[in-house]
Write a structure and sequence with these properties.
mainly alpha, single chain
Length: 557
């Protein structure tokens, strides 16, 4: 059985942060020293490879070299621009000037004018965007914020009101931006009307809308209503509860102070209309625009980290979250998200002081202590892990909520590793009482019994129950195969374990268990081949020693 890590389970709720804002974001990696490529073709090939592997800084470097050698090559100009844009390079605007018909280049130049405060030039740029597709959806918003930049608030609000008159999924967004402009202009009555219309269109407030509504209510002298809105948000997204006091303080300020920030919000919104896996490149570009205009869009930064994790770029995800300051309203959930990522990388130890400070600042929060326990357990300090898990359980309240099952599960693993099986078994039972049928707990307890040769019939029943919840989890199928082996049901065990190997082909322990079953069935050569395969899959030291011992024993027969 692969021991399913607690940190992986705890990351799942934080992935739900993707529903809190309208987008994900991406940040440029730090530029590293790159070797020069003298031949233009070689530079272009190196740039294409770097772009394909997601190294935008390297791609920008090599495409720039290729373009310098072949300055009239339109294809290279486009590739160089796109890579520079994704890498956050300052020369993206210079390259955009060479691509007058490219919508991304148009937005880049419009953004540059907006950053310079030249709203007439920005409006001219944005007006050149195609009126169809996604650019047609955002075009009225960008133009309205340019009008707001020139204090033409009535024209800006009117433009968005007319755009919202056409039925479509973007109509509530037009109304929300009209509300933000009216709010910024001090037109409270108009702002209230458009906020109400936006709420009706969008439904349950997401993070950005909830903050905007709460901010407007608080500044209008209705702090109770502002708190109610944030409590509604937290009820829908419990992972934000730790940030509630900071969000309440943030609600005393406007969400958008300047037209430049408004344009950033518009890009954030448009990125949210692009499906999660539908067009990740376009979404990253839109969020690059948003973060270039407003680097403090922390929700976008957090969700960018989630996106990077989905793309298997944990280092980039952690770097994104590291840029969130301790005084940011979303610092606490961001730190917890970052901790989960670094635990997976084996680098969580450095965050123990920050987690301790967070636990002290939030005396009712369980997550900082629970994650600290995960870090200590991963480092082999099971006593510290047990102590921290116990403290986290003490904060969970009475009666214990169902979610506390994970705290007992985590403590049980540390107790098991500390050779305290009686206590571990009790905690696993408690976890199941809180979350009956929880597949990971069923798996851990059943496999632990199988290792000890205890309660095998009950273990088999529990694993089959777990598989009704998660039928394609290789760790659980592997556990069932091992239990069937211990019960002497060799033929069924072999069929089950072959399925486990198909589900987890690169797991050393799963492959070693198949070898054990082959050996029990008398298939010596197949067993030896499978043990050799398991050794090639980089098992940990304990697993390696066990596999080598089985091979040695088989060879001695």
């Amino acid at each position: 059985m692969r021991r399913l890590p607690i940190a992986a389970l705890r990351r799942a709720p934080r992935r739900a942060l993707g529903a809190l804002a309208l987008c994900l974001a991406a940040a440029a990696p730090a530029a590293a020293a790159l070797p020069p490529v003298s031949a233009p073709y070689g530079a272009a090939m190196a740039g294409a490879y770097a772009a394909q592997t997601g190294d935008n800084a390297a791609a920008a470097h090599y495409f720039a070299a290729a373009l310098a050698a072949d300055p009239d090559n339109a294809r290279l100009a486009g590739q160089s621009f796109l890579s520079a844009l994704l890498a956050g390079k300052a020369d993206a605007a210079r390259l955009a000037a060479r691509l007058p018909g490219d919508p991304l280049a148009v937005m880049t130049l419009g953004d540059a004018a907006a950053k310079a405060g030249d709203w007439k030039q920005a409006a001219t740029r944005f007006a050149a965007l195609p009126a169809e597709g996604l650019t047609g959806l955002i075009r009225p918003v960008l133009l309205a914020w340019c009008e707001a930049g020139d204090a033409e608030y009535g024209a800006a609000i009117g433009r968005l009101d007319r755009a919202a008159a056409h039925p479509g999924p973007f109509a509530p967004i037009y109304r929300l931006n009209a509300a933000l402009i009216a709010d910024m202009a001090g037109r409270e009555a108009q702002a209230a009307r458009f906020y109400a219309l936006a709420t009706l269109g969008i439904g349950q407030p997401n993070l950005r809308l909830a903050l905007a509504l709460a901010s407007f209510a608080d500044r209008a002298g209705h702090p109770g209503h502002a708190r109610a809105l944030l409590l509604q948000l937290v009820a829908s997204h419990p992972e934000l509860r730790i940030a509630l006091p900071a969000l309440e303080r943030a609600a005393r300020r406007p969400v958008v102070d300047t037209p430049r920030q408004g344009i950033a919000e518009a890009y954030l919104t448009l990125a949210g209309t692009v499906g999660g896996r539908q067009d990740p490149l376009l979404r990253r570009i839109l969020l690059r625009f948003a973060l270039d205009l407003r680097p403090d869009l922390t929700a976008a930064r957090m969700l960018a980290a989630t996106d990077a994790m989905q793309d298997k770029r944990p280092e980039a995800a952690a770097a994104l979250l590291a840029g969130i300051a301790p005084d940011d309203p979303l610092y606490a959930p961001a730190l917890l998200q970052r901790t989960g990522i670094l635990i997976g990388l084996g680098k969580g130890k450095s965050l123990l002081p920050a987690l301790a400070a967070l636990a002290k600042a939030h005396p009712r929060a369980t997550e900082p202590l629970a994650l600290a326990a995960d870090i200590e357990r991963a480092a082999g300090d099971n006593a510290a892990a047990i102590r921290l898990s116990t403290a986290a359980i003490g904060r969970a309240g009475m009666p214990l909520p169902a979610s506390a099952w994970a705290l007992f599960y985590a403590r049980a693993i540390a107790e098991d590793h500390a050779k305290q099986w009686k206590a571990a078994q009790s905690d696993l039972r408690e976890a199941l009482d809180l979350a009956p049928g929880q597949p990971y707990v069923l798996n851990y307890l059943a496999y632990s019994w199988a290792l000890r040769g205890e309660h095998l019939a009950e273990a088999e029943r529990m694993l089959r129950q777990a598989l009704t919840v998660d039928p394609n989890e290789g760790a659980i199928v592997d556990s069932l195969g091992y239990v069937l082996l211990r019960e002497g049901k060799i033929a069924e065990a072999m069929k089950t374990q072959i399925h486990a190997v198909h589900l987890a082909p690169d797991d050393a322990e799963v492959n070693a268990h198949l070898a054990d079953i082959f050996a029990a069935a008398g298939h010596r050569l197949a067993a030896e081949h499978q043990w050799e395969r398991a050794l090639s899959l980089h098992p940990d030291a304990k697993q390696r020693a066990r596999i080598e011992a089985r091979l040695k024993a088989a060879a001695a027969r």
